[in-house]
Amino acid sequence: MPHRVVDFFRSSNDSIHNIKASVQRRSNPNSRSASRERPTRHSSAASSVLEDVTDHNNAQTPIYTALPVKMSEVKEKLKEKESHTHHRLSFPSLHLGSSKASKEQPQNPNASLSWKIESPPAVMHGEPENSTGALVSGQLLLDVKEEGFEVDNFSAKLEIHVVQKRPFAGHCQSCSNQTTELKSWTFLSEPTILTKRIHEFPFSVLLDGHLPASTDNPVVAIRYDFSAEVTPRTSGPAIKFTKNIDVKRSLQVPELPHHSIRIFPPTNIAASVHFSQVMHPISTNTVTLRLDGVVKHNPDAKSVEYWKLKRLSWKLEENMETVAPACDKHAPKDPETGLPTKKGSKRTDSRIIAHADMHTGWKSDYSPSGCIEMEIQCALPPATKAACDLKSEDGTEVTHQLVVEMVVVQEYAPTAHPKHITPTGVARILRMHFGVVITERAGLGVSWDNEAPPIYQDVPPSPPSYSCDIPYESVEDLSLSRRSAESGRTASPAYEGLAPPTSPTPPALGADDTAR
Length: 516
Known about the structure:
Blueprint: H1 2-10, H2 16-27, H3 44-56, H4 71-85, H5 100-103, E1 111-117, E2 123-125, E3 134-144, E4 149-164, H6 173-176, E5 177-188, E6 192-194, E7 198-207, E8 215-216, E9 220-232, E10 239-245, E11 248-250, E12 258-264, E13 269-275, E14 278-279, E15 284-292, E16 295-298, E17 303-325, E18 344-358, E19 363-365, E20 371-379, E21 390-391, E22 397-414, E23 422-438, H7 448-451, H8 472-486, H9 511-515
Parallel strand pairs: 2-11, 14-23
Antiparallel strand pairs: 1-3, 3-7, 4-5, 4-6, 4-9, 8-9, 9-10, 12-13, 13-15, 15-20, 16-17, 17-18, 17-22, 19-20, 21-22, 22-23
Helix pairs in contact: 2-3, 3-4
């Protein structure tokens, strides 16, 4: 029966005569006369019912002329055939994929682990040579859900994880992943019984300024993995906690734009460009361009030559470079010592993260001191996911450059008739390269050492002491004069021996004054 169901689906458009002929050929291979009959088109569902009838009766003398067919019966017959012939095939040993639940680690019902970051986002300010790094501090929260939960040990660590997307040896996990431990904490080193509440365990780490920032590009990925593990004393799975710390680097934007002048011999064209060398992701950088020397006068030939700008295109290129190290298994051995030597393969890649073509949008002045001026808006779209500039000690480096190309053509006109312009057929491509830096925004944060109060060693010495040259006796005299001044007396050691002042006496009256 299964082969007949297959024939039914394959021959749904065949005539009933062809179906009958196929049935007869199965029952009697020597009979070929039924296939020579003229075919007529009938319903395929009815033909399946006729096949069933011929199967239960004599296959050599099929009955298919006096059978009344109803659609309801046909549907019932089809359902019966599907229920009897369609079977589900299972392959226990074949696993085409794992479910999401199987990837999740078993959780301990007695406790859970989380964290709370108290420090601002980890941003390193300045160049790697001068940066003081970034400070990360927070608390691990162990939520104990039952009374008397006993913990064997509790530890955490912070690692820098480098993933080589083009490793030294393909399909080798050791060549693809390199981890370096930066900091480790041991919160509980011996068995401890914890009560039912949320227990807080503070942690802090200072990321050095020379460390690379987090990145993910087509060549390499660098991330900072923070992991913690609690081992229960009793039976039960270990409580694990894993998070990534996003470390960024921010460079200071100069106050004045960068000015560059380029000369393109053998022409007299000079390009003056003003632009900002520091850009931010999802931002727009304005480039001001001015072309001088586009007009040349020929007094002997009484003609003027013009350089006209026909097209301008710009693009931002991202260049990535890294060294994929070899693991101990794939590293070549030293013939003398037999130990593996350090070896790596250089991996490079470049891509265009933004570009545009301009055919208009500039101002042209073809006076005797003519020039061409324009402004270019270099925008970084979010979809490109540009990687910030990076340079680490292991050879990983990410740089960017701005490339500007201009197509200029030369035209000729006589001095007497400057409007009669004739193309000369000479064209030039003017290309300029400028190094730019893409960095994260600093936001409202500053370096951690500028926020922290000064420590004891950084406190300057106390104010200088004043030397006293007055003898001890003079100090006593000054104190005595102060007490006498408070009591209302004006006598002082400096005025001893002088008579106190007296009030003036009126003059004596004479005889004339008496008579008057």
